[in-house]
């Protein structure tokens, strides 16, 4: 597969540089039509029932294919992952498969180049995590606005120092689900958070279709904004901009000029671009009216600040409407916001806004330097608090409830060991980022971070000195060398295994679907509604069967076979891990676990170590899938076929740097989808949602 992939890349580069009429020599009629006829239309065209709702027989020319770029991408995926034809049908020889991949990729690149349209990044509000960060940074608070359970890995003893380029060998970390002690942190008294924003299916919690702003929620934001500035903890000791913004000026006669100067800077930060004279004047007049009515200067400034952080200009993440139907470059202020919310989950800082004001931020060298600066700033911890837990779908660990009698180690006191297990992959991700390691280390690292409880109960290790098996607060995690490749990495992590299991038994289908979705960014279709779930407790007649044998009965339906062919090998590859992620060689009935399989019909494996080896051999596919997750998170939208050429370029440009995480992030930022927008006619040019500031409403 590697040789075929490299050959395909070389051929693709050659083909892209050739005139279209030369590329067409291997034309639709000579290559595509006979291939469809021989391998595809039996299921996708000639029969009365067209599987997958794809009728390839209806495609008569290259022009027909160009009308459906998503279909072209599906064909590329099916060929590269060797998902088609089905296992029981004659396969396509490797030379023909290579030609098909090259042809379809060139065709897709041609379509994208001609159309120049990406999926629109929708107008959306900040999610709760972003709002809290933005308010904290706007006022330079030395405490949290409110406690966020979505911050799964809580830093203790200041271990997260990205500028050093090295993670300490011992870190102290906690997690909110470990108990109420995790809520003991400095925050604004009297400020209650709004409900947590849920992660989109196969996506993230920053998606526009999940972040609407109803009138009721807008009213809640107004109440929230007032509670922030009226908190007894909101004052000179906690607010970093107190003297420069809230404090009363010494010269009472200079109120208007001082207010205007302070507001200009403050509103530019809050609204992420320079404000118009008209808008600035409305805020100045509002404050002067408050003071004239007898309100103090400080309270008047607080009222204006409250109005600003309840304003749609602050709450909404939006981009100025394009003046054309196709993609066009975002302006520098939009780039500053897109970059800052991607890596820091917050509003741009003064440096980004200054570069945007100069019009130099989009310069590739300057932009790359800013990415590096931001990745060395402690605020990148917010990226680590947001992306990896959602990428890995770790919120599902909360609902994992293994049978307490069968798996007592999973529980201690009133807490769960799962919270220890969950922190292992998050610390791994932080290390890969801080130390700029290859993303392959997320799959097969030679190190990990583990608590004493994990070492003793999960990995059978002896711990030197006094064992600390059940802390609730700042748990010590030690960096350990992995000398057994069965363990380590995100796939074989015990938290992932337990959250993809039932209370009594592992679930290979669920685990396989997780690997397909998370590792290869290829989520399977949901099962047919009339397929009954497999019982965790087998009936008497199946008691002596292995789980693989039982599932073989389950997949006999033709409409189930296609997905099972894709996900079952993934799930059975990790079947040696029991429902709480401990290693087992045999089932309770004494039958040996069979974890063998075939990855992409190319790489045979007999155990989980060989499965990891197979993934590493296919690291280009994995890197492309990971880049897709990152790009989707960065753009806050679902990717489409139009983004596919950009993903190919990202992988190509990071290959020489061994797919180091910082390189992947940099190439995401430098990619065309990140630097452009397709949003004609959302709002008038250079405008945004607006109302007028009063004592009860925002601007």
User: Low-confidence spans: pLDDT under 50, at least 5 residues?
Assistant: 1-25, 682-692, 694-698
Q: Percent helix among the residues?
A: 40-55%
Residue fraction in strands: 5-15%
Tally of helical runs: 28
Mean pLDDT: 83
Structural class: mainly alpha
Largest sheet: 4 strands, antiparallel
Side by side, the strands of the main sheet go 2-3-9-8
Shape: globular
Whole-number count of domains: 6
What does this structure look like?
The chain has 699 residues and is mainly alpha-helical. It has six domains: 2-115, no CATH class; 118-146 and 192-327 and 678-699, no CATH class; 149-186 and 377-505, no CATH class; 328-376; 507-574 and 585-617, no CATH class; 619-677. The chain is built from 28 helices and twelve strands. Strand 6 and strand 7 (415-416) form a beta hairpin. Helix 26 (644-654) crosses helix 27. The protein is globular, with a radius of gyration of 28 Å.
Concise synopsis of the structure shown:
The chain has 699 residues and is mainly alpha-helical. It is built from 28 helices and twelve strands.
């Amino acid at each position: 597969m590697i040789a075929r992939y490299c050959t395909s890349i070389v051929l693709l580069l050659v083909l892209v540089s050739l005139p279209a009429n030369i590329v067409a020599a291997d034309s639709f009629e000579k290559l595509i039509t006979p291939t469809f006829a021989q391998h595809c239309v039996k299921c996708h065209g000639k029969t009365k029932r067209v599987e997958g709702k794809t009728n390839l027989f209806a495609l008569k020319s290259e022009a027909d294919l160009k009308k459906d770029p998503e279909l072209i991408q599906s064909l590329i995926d099916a060929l590269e992952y060797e998902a088609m034809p089905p296992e029981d049908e004659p396969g396509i020889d490797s030379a023909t498969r290579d030609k098909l991949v090259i042809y379809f990729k060139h065709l897709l690149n041609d379509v994208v180049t001609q159309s120049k349209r990406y999926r629109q990044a929708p107008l959306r509000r900040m999610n709760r995590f972003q709002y809290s960060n933005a308010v904290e940074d706007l006022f330079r608070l030395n405490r949290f606005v409110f406690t966020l359970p979505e911050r799964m890995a809580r830093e203790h003893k200041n271990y997260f120092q990205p500028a050093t380029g090295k993670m300490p060998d011992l870190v102290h970390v906690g997690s909110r689900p470990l108990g109420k002690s995790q809520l003991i942190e400095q925050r604004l008294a009297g400020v209650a958070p709004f409900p947590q924003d849920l992660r989109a299916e196969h996506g993230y919690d920053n998606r526009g279709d999940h972040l609407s702003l109803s009138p009721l929620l807008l009213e809640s934001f107004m109440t929230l904004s007032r509670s922030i500035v009226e908190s007894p903890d909101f004052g000179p000791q906690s607010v970093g901009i107190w003297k420069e913004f809230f404090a009363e000026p010494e010269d009472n006669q200079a109120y208007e000029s001082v207010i205007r100067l302070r507001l200009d800077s403050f509103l530019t930060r809050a609204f992420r671009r320079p404000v118009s004279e008209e808008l600035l004047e409305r805020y100045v007049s509002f404050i002067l009216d408050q003071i004239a009515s007898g309100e103090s200067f400080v309270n008047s400034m607080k009222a204006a600040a409250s109005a600003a952080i309840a304003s749609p200009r602050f709450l909404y993440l939006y981009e100025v409407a394009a003046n054309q139907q196709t993609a066009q470059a975002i302006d520098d202020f939009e780039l500053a916001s897109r970059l800052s919310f991607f890596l820091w989950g917050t509003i741009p800082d003064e440096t980004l806004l200054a570069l945007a004001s100069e019009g130099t931020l989009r310069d590739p060298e300057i932009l790359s330097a800013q990415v590096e600066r931001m990745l060395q700033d402690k605020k990148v911890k917010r990226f680590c608090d947001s992306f990896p837990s959602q990428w890995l779908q770790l919120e599902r660990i909360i609902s994992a409830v293994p049978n307490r009698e069968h798996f007592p180690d999973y529980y201690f006191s009133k807490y769960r060991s799962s919270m220890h297990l969950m922190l292992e992959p998050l610390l791994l991700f932080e290390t890969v980022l801080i130390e700029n390691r290859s993303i392959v280390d997320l799959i097969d690292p030679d190190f990990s971070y583990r608590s004493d409880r994990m070492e003793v109960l999960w990995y059978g290790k002896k711990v030197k000195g006094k064992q600390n098996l059940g802390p609730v607060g700042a748990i010590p995690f030690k960096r350990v060398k992995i000398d057994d490749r069965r363990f380590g990495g995100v796939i074989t992590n015990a938290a992932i295994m337990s959250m993809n299991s039932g209370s009594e038994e592992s679930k290979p289908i669920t685990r396989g679907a997780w690997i397909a979705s998370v590792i290869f960014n290829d989520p399977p279709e949901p099962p047919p509604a009339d397929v009954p779930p497999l019982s965790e407790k087998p009936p008497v007649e199946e008691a002596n069967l292995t789980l693989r044998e039982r599932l073989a009965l389950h997949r006999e339906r033709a409409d189930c076979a296609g997905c099972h062919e894709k996900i079952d090998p993934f799930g059975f590859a990790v079947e040696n891990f029991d429902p709480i992620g401990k290693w087992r060689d045999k089932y309770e009935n004494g039958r040996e676990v069979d974890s063998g399989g075939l990855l992409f019909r190319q790489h045979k494996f007999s155990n989980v170590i060989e499965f990891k080896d197979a993934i590493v051999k296919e690291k280009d596919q994995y890197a492309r899938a990971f880049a897709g997750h990152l790009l989707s998170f960065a753009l806050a939208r679902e990717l489409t076929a139009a983004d596919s050429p950009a993903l190919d370029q990202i992988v190509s440009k990071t290959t020489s740097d061994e797919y180091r995480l910082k390189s992947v992030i940099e190439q995401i930022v430098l990619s065309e989808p990140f630097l452009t927008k397709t949003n004609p006619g959302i709002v008038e040019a250079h405008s945004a949602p607006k109302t007028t500031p009063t004592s009860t409403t925002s601007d």
